[in-house]
Hints:
By secondary structure, this protein is mainly alpha-helical. The protein folds into two domains: 3-36, no CATH class; 45-92, Orthogonal Bundle (Multidrug-efflux Transporter Regulator, Chain: A, Domain 2), CATH 1.10.1660.10. The protein has helices spanning 3-9, 19-36, 48-55, 59-68, 84-92; strands at residues 45-47, 74-76, 79-83. It has a three-stranded antiparallel beta sheet. The longest helix is centred in the N-terminal third of the chain and has 18 residues, at 19-36. The chain is elongated.
Amino acid sequence: MSINEILRTGANVSFTITALDLKEWMLELIEEQNKSSIPATTEKYFTAQETADKLGVDVSTLWRWDKTGYLKKIKVGNKIRYRESDVIKLMEG
């Protein structure tokens, strides 16, 4: 009987495992999690003024672009930021 079958039937059973078995299982679990996790990318964010300077536009243009969805802003608390990747996409055309 496999563990899945035991879980499915809801049988009341006890297992005895060694500390070494538990450690090996935990290491396998951690390795599996590391393989399936998405690598973290570090995204840089610009202020509205920095973004406007890089794109050669006025800050009011950024506001209009946000309203139309052309360049969306990110709110961090009460501060407005723009993703570097979005700004680069606009600069590349």
